[in-house]
Amino acid sequence: MKSHMNASVITHFNSTITDFRMTNRICFFMMALGLLVAPSFSSERLFLQEDLPIEKEKQNVENQKAVKQVAKQSAEKKDDEQENTETELKNTEAEPAKSADVQSPAKEPPAKEPPAKEPPAKGPEESYLELMNAWKELESKLQEKEVEFVVVGESRKNEIRKEYDLLLAEANELTPRLTAAAVASYRSKPNQDPTLVRLLIGMLTDHLAKNRNEEFFDLGQILIEGKVDITHFKAMQRSKRLVSFDVPELIDELLARHQDAEKNNLPRAVITTSYGDIELELFEDSTPNHVANFVKLASDGFYNGSPFHRVDPSNRVVQGGMPADAAKAIDYTLAAEWEIDNPRFHFKGAVGAARLSDNPHSASSEFYIMTDRFRAFDGSYTVFGRVVSGMEFVNRINEGDKMLGVEIIRKRDHQYLPEKFDPESVKKDDPEEAGSSTNPPAPTPPAPTPPAPTPPAATPPAAINQNPPVQKAPTGTAPAEKSSQEKRNGEKTPDQKKDPE
Asked: What is the reported pLDDT for 328?
């Protein structure tokens, strides 16, 4: 008896070891296969954040109930139609047969049946649930094929691989449809379905992990417009999938946009061009002086007829803001506002203040719009706004195109008067107060020598008009006058116009 028990224990132990080894093989294979042939996003479970509350089981039950309800209604409709048909047949058979010698009256032609009504269009929520269930079914089949590939013999591996590829192609075809349906469902009923919100946050995380920054901000804006809880964005900061060095600044920008939307009172301006309107949101809370300057100049009609004098694809800028009439050039400059807490960076659509390359406090009326992300300008130029709509029109602007007008469509209830920069307020040996430790200004000359360089208003009008449209960083100057950033990049910067070299 004892020997029999020992044999049973040994047999069970060997079986357990075999199962454990097989499980390890399957897990290893699935990990490798996922790296090689995973679709653009694998499944809902990859989207779910570990640190968010999970109500998946509850939601699945609700989803199944909704689908069953639709199926039940369809079945009831079919039963009703079948019952009506059977009743008509019985009535026909019950009629007594008429005598052959009795001439039956002529039958009236049957009335035309009204055309069958088309089934009502599916709502966003129903389409999303249907596609989500199809996705889960595909995911289950893919997982079965992954396991089957491991356990079958070599003769069937090619067959399993082909079946897997067909399922994968079907999943890839379904992915954009599921994404569109999920977004439509969220827009119709924002934040009512926790599982849907987690799915969209997962898609957002996936965009970020795969460096799809434009899609990241587009989907993020949809969630912001739906007033998604900001804690979902903050949870992405803890995701183990996000390892890229630029992830923190991207999430910080999304958080800043969420906070701006909650305030819903930042100034806004519309630049009218021959291509269409470009709407700007201005960061008054972080760069109040540059915003005050832009709002005042726009309100005074300063930018009406002003040209876009520089379109520079290499530095990704479209620049304008010179006065249409050179005699109306402003006679002051602004102190830099980039050394602040949580500065905004040069993402696509950012609006920054142009300045002279050797003086951080030389910004006046000129500004530029970024056509793409450009990290080289961060920490050296003041970003005071961003494009919220009309970026497609920015991309069509050519050198020489004019602003037909700039209108302030929203502002806060106070006067907008810029504070003029006083060069005497900058200490000669304190680069921290000069605006940037990486791009220090030229030493302040002793009084009563006027400050260098000369502000734009002191430039003769003829010199401005004679300048070529493409603006270049100064060349031939002493190395000490160039910033360390310019030395590293060897690239042009969004400087104000200077005399031809």
From this structure: 83
